[in-house]
Design brief:
The chain is an alpha/beta fold and about 400 residues long. The protein is about 40% helix and about 10% strand. It is globular and about 55 Å long. The chain binds 6-hydroxyuridine-5'-phosphate.
Length: about 400
Amino acid sequence: MAPSSQRHPTLYQTYGERSEQPNLTPLASYLLRLIHLKRTNLCVSADVNTTTELLQLAEEVGEHICVLKTHADIIDDFSDRTIRGLNEISRRKKFLIFEDRKFGDIGSTLQQQYTRGPLAIVKWASLVNAALFPGPAVITALAEAAQKAIAAHNTSVSTDISASPAASLVDSGRDDESVEGASDDDDDDEDDDDDDDIDSDVAEASDLAEDRKGRKQSVVSVSTTISTKTEAISPQPALRPTLSRDSTQSSDAEEAEEVAAELAELGPPPFHRSLLLLAQMSSAGNLLTPDYTAQCVHHARRNRDFVMGFIAQQSLNKEAGDNFITMTPGVQLTQGGDAHGQQYNTPQKVIAEGGTDIIIVGRGVYGAPVSERKAAALKYRQAGWNAYQQRLRAGRQRR
Ligand code: BMP
């Protein structure tokens, strides 16, 4: 970590405080808030090989994580079922989905890798990562594809609404809801995205709307317009007044109820997309030099509306105004490594000393016997949170 004279303010701010600062993507703001409320800075890396295993793991650890990281290309039977299942669990248990794709190609190719093919990542993963070695067009190309996907999603939802003009207070029995009242959780979330074709034009979306029965139609009243609905999806999520609750550990029932209510109010993730730049790696002998890392930071600053932060081994916030989120893989409860160059640091080392924000843990959790996975996730959650609190305490002592 940098010498104390150079330490960046974000190191000693709570996740909640950071969520309210400018210079954040909407997703970064949502994620910091989620971490603060849910009290977990744990991302589980779900490196399993079937949809059933993936969904089972997500179900088991969901309550303990802020992000679930996937490698979709190692799932033998990846399909719409995988996407629907992930979206449903992530919405219910409140975590973001991060596809660890490590894009690294010319812009035109990676736009297709992001949006097309059997994985069509942009449809279901809020977060992706990319290496910067091909040049900064990786960022702009992905940002452009993400923008199109968001626009298509919003168009599709709008069309869905307009396609059901007389809908269906009768169908739904929900005669107390209008579009104004329809910005509730279920309507703005990733789940809406399950079967949205990001490449569809308005006509296709309209066909889709014809096919759909029920939920979206059920919230539309005859006299309302579609614009209110679309507004609820894309902009920066409105933040409630300053988060007051301190990040202390407590498990009494009242506190748990309060947390549940705040999480419910936070709602599901907005339909947005953000990028993490692969700035440093955990593997032995990797070729990501300090100069390369510095270039990542430079280009992240130039693209703050899309780059949420970094995959790195230490915080890279250096300048005033930096509020990037750093996620760190290569974490276990004891230092060590594997037979293929992986190197492990502890949560204490990366969060308390290195100043990073989220620990990424794979085998430390999914490698535990099935009956112990939930407990393993809880252990990492506690270790990550304790390290964060230790860093905050160190900050208070410095003042
Ligand atoms: P594990 O905790 O089992 O070693 O898994 C680490 C996960 O993080 C893997 O999915 C790996 O692809 C990813 N990862 C990493 O280990 N180091 C990096 O520098 C970047 C990664 O994405």
